[in-house]
Amino acid sequence: MSFLIHEVVYFGRCLPFMIMDKIPYFRQYKIQEQKMPTLAEQWACARLVLLSHFTVELPQIWLFHPMAQYFGLSTSVPFPHWYTMAWQIALFFVLEDAWHYWFHRALHTPRLYKMIHKLHHQYSAPFGLAAEYASPLETMILAFGTVGIPIVFCAFTKNLHVITMYTWIVGRLFQAIDAHSGYEFPWSLHHFLPFWAGADHHDVHHEKFLGNYASSFRWWDAVMNTEAGSASGAAKRAKAAAVKEE
């Protein structure tokens, strides 16, 4: 069930962006509009992602439940109160973001980049399916922030329900796919939460191959001086310059 939820959410969330790629109206929201993914690129990406899901992530998901239950994960009624779920998921977002920032930044050191992380940067203009397009080793390293941190939390607090875990995983998948979508909308979350990253933040990372290492928030990049600027802002400036030249 856990693996099925992962697959349905992952590919289901990617589908709207794949449809938008084929509708000219949405080109105005594409950050790197000159780089639209081809069907061949998407299919090649989907094949590797599926291979990774079945060979790397499925065994991890299979082992998660007995391990988490050993550390005290609850799988029975009553379900947790909504505010308990809310603060725990918020905490997981903050902790995962810190884990992701430092290990992602480490993967950009020359040796680790060449050995591990280069595959994820195959697409300089990311799209939703590419969110989990990565080497098995990178998948395991960065996935610890998503799965391992809640297990450690559960081991110490004995206060985590499987429903909270499912909700957190779905939220994390949405965040990762949206960050790789390549689309910047007027209703994108960072317009309402300035510290949120999103595609506006992460697209620059794929285009420039450096900076903007965090996953969900902007504060680590701001504090550590690795902020690479606004993708949507750069696109708007380029369009304005082109109009001016005309």
TrEMBL record:
Q: Where in the cell is it found?
A: Membrane
Q: List GO terms (cellular component aspect).
A: endoplasmic reticulum membrane; plasma membrane
Query: One GO molecular-function annotation for this sequence?
Result: C-4 methylsterol oxidase activity
Can the keyword Amino-acid biosynthesis be found in this entry's annotation? Answer: no
Q: Where is it predominantly found? A: membrane
Is DNA damage one of the keywords UniProt gives this record? no
Keywords tagged on the record: Membrane, Transmembrane, Transmembrane helix
Q: What is this protein called?
A: C-4 methylsterol oxidase
